[in-house]
Amino acid sequence: MGVWGSLNAQREGLAAAGADAGLHATAVALPRHDDRVLIGGYETTRAALERLWSETSYRMQSLRDDRACAEEELEGIDLRTYRSVTRLGFDARRDVAAPYVATGARPRAAILRDQGVNGQVEMGAAFHRAGFEAVDVHMSDLFEQRRSLEDFAVLAACGGFSYGDVLGGGGGWAKSILFDARVRDAFAAFFARSDTLTLGVCNGCQMLSQVKSLVPGAARWPRFVRNRSEQFEGRSVVVRVGATDSPWLAGMVGSVLPIAVAHGEGRVEFDAPEWDSRQARTVLRYVDGIGQPTERYPLNPNGSQGGVAGLTSTDGRALIMMPHPERVFRAIQHSWCPPEWDGDGPWLRLFRNARVALG
Q1: What is the pLDDT of residue 5?
Q2: What is the CATH number of domain 98-358?
């Protein structure tokens, strides 16, 4: 079509919408297929201009935050491994839960939150879309016995900043469970049931890692401590789904997917130095632009060894992860995704898998 044809098409579209009054438009640039920028007689690479643009931010970041992280982010402008990559190992358009949803049965999912948690709306929406009855459950409902975990098939602990993270990420939330004998026993009984599934995201992940003594097969889960950057990290990253028999990730193994993160304490720290991420049942890792696990910032937003982003219990029924699948279960929620993604995004498969697992 060319730049003028494209410009005319834009004008016609505005005119059809009645928005062309007083409009003056002219073409100022042409797209290129390489990584270079040409302005008049000046030509350079996109990376060189981005480094100039980022210089002031880098100087401030290197003084305020972890200097090595600031340097890695600046260096990454030139590296191929910093480019986004996606790889789907399944058909995201296929609704694997459809036969189960068609029965009319909607298993109940407890969308669990506490003071300071803010991710319950997106979490509830994702489970509802996948065929569940999503029920808002506040910890006060459990303490005051307005709700019982016996009535639920799924427990989803949501993200946010419970108790302002003053006792560490998820610390206050976890202790409120562990220090109340009746509530502690209720959680232990839920986790012990073979007909339940558990998901912990972000703050919910941090909380569940601190009540791992109640979760069968979770003894080697790590703690989640301060990010290497020394800052809250809210950005889009890419993770790879590793080999696993977890029902949560059925059919997704090998997929490389963008996902949102938003946390200040996401770096894994294992109880024993000889424990590694394989022994802890790692199923999600932050990866670089060629799909390899990475510890480089900001591709790995917190510095977790081996790029650890998510883990399961030994039987796979419990999944904890720092990234937020519920914030990107629709393709439109991604800040960037391949243009062919539309409607339901690939991360909805995780929630639909849970519906399939419950039959």
Answers
A1: 57
A2: 3.40.50.880
